[in-house]
Amino acid sequence: MPLATMTSVLREAQKGRYAVPAFNVCTNEHIDCVFDVSLKLRTPVIIAIHPVEIAFFGMKEITRVIQSRAETHPYPVVMHLDHGDSYDTAVQCMVHGFTSVMFDGSTLPLEENIAHTREIVKAARAAGVSVEAELGLVGGTEGDAYAHTDGFSDDQLTDPETAVEFIKQTGADSLAVAIGTAHGFYQGEPRIDVDRLMEIRKRVEVPLVLHGGSGISDTMIQTVIQEGICKINISSEFKRAYHQGLTDAMEGHPDVWDPIILYPEAKQHAKQLLKEKFELFGSVNQA
Length: 287
Ligand SMILES: [Zn+2]
Prior knowledge:
By secondary structure, the chain is an alpha/beta fold. The chain has helices at residues 6-16, 28-41, 51-57, 59-71, 87-95, 110-127, 160-170, 194-203, 218-226, 236-252, 259-281, and strands at 20-24, 45-49, 77-84, 100-103, 130-135, 146-147, 174-177, 185-186, 208-210, 229-234.
């Protein structure tokens, strides 16, 4: 089927009270894993691609691979720009067929974040593309090995009242909230501010997104889904699982150098992790 917009997928998740994982990909094998598991479990999925991952794979190349896989895939797949940093990046992605773009203006002063997000929403509306915006600080950046868990001060986290105004002024379709998560692996237990999430949920109607989903306890994941999160980003955990699978395969067959033998074992390992995430998030059989 054609690629789905993020709004269509997340609105269903909101109704059904489950979350759809967004898995970051940067190789053909990652993409294979996501499609294979989605097919097996009949689940919608979001394929997230960060600008660094686009540069690594090539814009034309990665979008063509995903589009052609999606054409014969029976369940909704969203091709989503993760942490877009500018209007130009967002528009370039729309031109190349992304059905969803994130603009991350969270490090900008509020007024600038609003102005840039609004401009991107305007272009995205014309293109039929969904927009995710971010308000507040999710620690670290994509690709960080370890997330810091020292906690965040109140003014770094998403303020519920500001979130109302932000959505009203920007028209963003979904909102990434800062409630104590960070990118990369946690070295201790992160302090997730569930009360804050509940306050945001009460006031803001658009689907809410959690970044920094790698390594959060299963119980906490279930709690945040219950309280209104319907998209959770997983990057580090997925890539680590693939890498671990590849390492094991190479150690298991020290004389083998052929990807035809090694890669399927690596994929098997990564797919097991994806399966666990889909099950935990409740999206199995929802497509
Ligand atoms: Zn993120």
